[in-house]
Amino acid sequence: MKYQELIDDYYKRFVVRTDAYYLQTPEGKYNARYEVITPDHLAKHLAGEITIAFPAVDKKGLCKWICYDDDNCLPESESGVLELIEELLCSAGYSCVREGRRQIVDKFKQGHLWIMLKEPIEAKLARAWTKWVLKQIGLPERVTKLDIFPRQAEPGLLSNPVRGPLGKHAKANGERGWFRDAPPNVESQLEWLASQPLNDTAHMARSAANYLITIDARSKYRDNFTKPRQGGKSAPSILEMMDALNWPYRPERDRFVSQCPVCALEGHDKSLDNLHISTDDTWYGCWYQGWNVTHTYKAIYSAFRSLRCT
Ligand SMILES: [Zn+2]
Question: What's the topology of domain 3-207?
Answer without folding.
Answer: DNA primase, PRIM domain (3.90.920)
